[in-house]
User: Which sequence fits this backbone?
């Protein structure tokens, strides 16, 4: 781009082609790069933003409460630290006592639970030893066994049987009832069964009927019978976990006795694993949130859990490491990680002796985990694991700590509140003044009222501040507010700086202003001119445009001068349509004042231009330069020829045709240009368009299509049809198009060449 050094002499030269026009420059010359320099806000780096945030903290409002609170916080933390140290020592003592209590309690409780079946067996064996086994003793056995059965609800099955497969049994059914059955004959095919409520024991055999339940069941074929006889020398023995006849899992305590004859008797008591799980639920330690489980050392299978889950969905026994309970599986996983296997736990150096029991304990995942070695019998070699939430025992200590912390925080908050009140009394006027300054930087000059402080120093600052506000309000009437905002945000001195941009430009002036100024007094002229320019300015601002300057009775306006407005062409056309509408309303007011009813003419074009500041180091001007400005300026006077109010260029029409109803007026070359442009008259926004306006748009499209095809007969027919549209019987545009048709038919050019501005 070449820029001459010629000084701009008049308005027409200012809006001439960008390739020939130039702003005034200083003797030192302004480089091309400086003129085309990007005109945009200075972006702050992240470092600048962080520094700004930190700098805000360096204030009386923040510093005074912080210092005051810091001193009190140090005092509170010192007191709390002493209390916390003392409480931690107490925690250690509590934990040691807890380990001893757990080992003693669990060992004694579990042993007592498993002592019940052998005790029942011993009682039954004594009765057997006193008289052997025969039918005459059946009533006594029934009574004695029922008493044992009824006295210990934890047992699921009590049985006395002989090598002759005679038996007397009581069985809990699990549904609130129990069953009694016996076999006292040698056929092995009949049992006398009676189901009864546990509070209603059986009376006499004659009350029951024979029922064939399990004709092939013989006690002598069971594992507990064999193991009892194998261990007869040592007394009571236990089985490993196995499946009962009903499919449930359990263990059996059995005792074999002889009466001196060849007949042996075995007394047995069953414990269902479900009852063992129920027993674990009764071991409530702490606040009742503990998780307990028993696991076999060798197999890793669960024997009982406080949550009752011993089998998977397929009915198979669960290993504790695969238990659905996260505490059970997690604790088992930790044991395996620490000691390689469950069997090795009690062989490690971590074992401690409490109350004669071997115990391993550690803290894991917020729990105190205690593992007790329970070797009750060669076939009952288990680990009993109890996981207790640490909060159950540390709760009071933690509560005390929180109370002390709460008191410290409360004191700090109260002191902070006092400091804030004190700082606000001092700094509120300053903060308010600072907020007002921010509003001023955004040119929001009407958002606050003048209110003086009681402090002398602040009153002086406020007085100067409001003087600046009044000056800015006045300055904003000389220069667009958007330009002032840009200058404030740049945080630097304005300089020659222009950028190319896509903008919409309009020129609107008053029709016949020269003649009217001769007929009116200066006061009247100023009144009507101010009214008209106010209407133009309001319409421009309301559509997000700026009035760049007033040139006599003409207003020069821009849209998208800062590149942030979408659909700026639509905004520009809406502005001119709004001006037309408001001028018609104002004409009624002028008429009532006996003033001339002014009319306006406007031209609007959309295209590329240079936008920004140009001038000298002493004086700058914000404006737009380029051929687009020249095109808009040339469109405005064409209204005199076509008897229209507003005309827009084809480039603008292309962008607004979907929102604005327009009719094409002509295709012209303006003075000083060789490239033709299409000229359109905007009629209305499409949603508000009348049938007449839509007909004008439609017929104009058809007319220019026919002209393009040089179908002059069709053009004349369409013009004749157009003159029938209401209100357009004598339309100057149609008259000129008819002349163009004749001109083209005689070999003339399709473009109208303008020779005047």
Assistant:
């Amino acid at each position: 781009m070449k820029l001459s050094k010629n000084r701009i002499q008049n308005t027409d030269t200012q809006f001439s082609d960008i390739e020939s026009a130039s702003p005034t420059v200083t003797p030192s010359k302004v480089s091309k790069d400086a003129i085309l320099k990007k005109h945009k806000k200075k972006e702050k780096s992240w470092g600048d933003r962080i520094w700004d945030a930190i700098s805000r903290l360096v204030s009386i409002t923040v510093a005074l409460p912080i210092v005051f609170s810091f001193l009190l916080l140090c005092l509170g933390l010192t007191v709390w630290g002493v209390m916390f140290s003392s409480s931690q020592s107490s925690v250690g003592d509590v934990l040691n006592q807890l380990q001893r209590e757990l080992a003693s309690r669990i060992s004694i409780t579990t042993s007592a639970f498993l002592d019940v079946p052998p005790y029942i067996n011993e009682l039954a064996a004594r009765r057997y030893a006193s008289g052997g086994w025969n039918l005459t003793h059946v009533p006594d056995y029934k009574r004695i066994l029922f008493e044992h059965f009824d006295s210990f609800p934890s047992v699921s099955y009590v049985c006395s049987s002989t090598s002759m497969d005679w038996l007397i049994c009581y069985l809990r059914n699990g549904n609130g009832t129990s069953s009694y059955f016996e076999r006292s004959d040698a056929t092995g095919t009949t049992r006398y069964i009676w189901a009864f409520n546990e509070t209603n024991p059986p009376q006499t055999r004659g009350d029951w009927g024979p029922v064939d339940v399990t004709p092939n069941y013989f006690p002598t074929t069971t594992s507990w019978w064999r193991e009892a006889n194998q261990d007869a020398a040592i007394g009571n023995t236990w089985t490993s976990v196995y499946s009962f006849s009903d499919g449930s899992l359990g263990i059996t305590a059995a005792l074999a006795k002889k009466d001196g004859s060849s007949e042996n008797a075995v007394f047995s008591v069953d414990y269902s694993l479900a009852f063992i799980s129920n027993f674990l639920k009764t071991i409530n330690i702490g606040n009742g949130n503990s998780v307990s489980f028993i696991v076999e050392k060798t197999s890793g299978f669960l024997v009982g859990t406080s949550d009752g889950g011993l089998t998977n969905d397929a009915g198979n026994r669960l290993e504790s490491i695969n238990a659905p309970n996260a505490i059970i599986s997690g604790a088992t996983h930790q044991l395996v990680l620490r000691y390689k296997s469950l069997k090795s736990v009690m062989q490690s150096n971590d074992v401690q002796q409490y109350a004669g029991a071997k115990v391993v304990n550690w803290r894991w995942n917020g729990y105190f985990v205690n593992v007790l070695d329970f070797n009750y019998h060669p076939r009952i070699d288990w680990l009993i694991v109890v996981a207790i939430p640490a909060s159950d025992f540390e709760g009071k200590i933690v509560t005390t700590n929180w109370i002390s912390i709460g008191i410290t925080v409360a004191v700090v908050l109260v002191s902070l509140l006092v400091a804030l009140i004190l700082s606000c009394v001092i700094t509120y006027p300053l903060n308010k003044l600072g907020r007002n300054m921010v509003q001023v930087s955004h040119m929001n000059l009407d958002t606050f009222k003048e209110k003086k402080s009681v402090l002398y120093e602040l009153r002086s600052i406020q007085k100067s501040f409001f003087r600046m506000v009044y000056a800015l309000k006045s300055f904003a009437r000389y220069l667009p507010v958007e330009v002032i905002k840009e200058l404030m945000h740049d945080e630097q001195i304005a300089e020659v700086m222009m950028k190319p941009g896509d903008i919409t430009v309009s020129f609107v002036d008053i029709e016949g202003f020269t003649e009217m100024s001769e007929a009116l007094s200066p006061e009247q002229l100023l009144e009507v001119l101010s009214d008209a320019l106010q209407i133009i300015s309001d319409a421009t601002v309301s559509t997000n445009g700026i009035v760049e300057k007033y040139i006599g009775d003409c207003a020069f306006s821009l849209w998208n001068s800062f590149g942030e407005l979408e659909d700026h062409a639509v905004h520009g056309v809406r502005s001119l349509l709004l001006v037309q509408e408001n001028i018609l309303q104002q004409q009624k007011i002028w008429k009532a004042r006996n003033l001339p009813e002014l009319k306006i003419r406007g031209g609007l074009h959309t295209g590329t231009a240079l936008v920004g500041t140009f001038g000298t180091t002493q004086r700058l001007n914000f404006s737009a330069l380029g051929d687009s400005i020249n095109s808009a300026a040339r469109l405005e006077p064409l209204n005199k020829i076509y008897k229209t109010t507003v005309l827009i260029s084809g480039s603008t029409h292309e962008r607004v045709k979907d929102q604005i109803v327009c009719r094409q007026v002509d295709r012209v070359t303006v003075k000083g240009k060789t490239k033709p442009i299409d000229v359109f008259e905007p009629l209305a926004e499409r949603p508000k368009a009348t049938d007449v306006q839509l007909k004008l748009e439609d017929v104009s499209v058809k007319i220019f299509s026919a002209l393009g095809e040089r179908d002059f007969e069709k053009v004349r027919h369409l013009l004749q049809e157009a003159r029938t549209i209401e209100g357009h019987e004598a339309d100057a545009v149609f008259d000129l198009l008819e002349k163009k048709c004749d001109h083209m038919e005689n070999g003339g050019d399709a473009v109208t060449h303008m020779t005047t501005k």
